[in-house]
Amino acid sequence: MLDTQSMKDLKELNEKCGMDMCGEMGEYHTMTLYGPIFKRTIQISEFTKEKVDNSFIMEPTRLSLTPE
Asked: What CA–CA distance (Å, rounded) separates 15 from 37?
């Protein structure tokens, strides 16, 4: 969620290491788990996190679909 505190945190990261606050240089990636055109929702119940170079990777290890 973007709120006043998260904006301050992003600004600090921008000043500290040059991270683009708008994500224009690939800082942000999204994953769509639900939407009005989908019949079911993907739920992630377990995942791993790994740092590779200057990036963090989240890999879901247990997924399920909500009942229809």
From this structure: 39
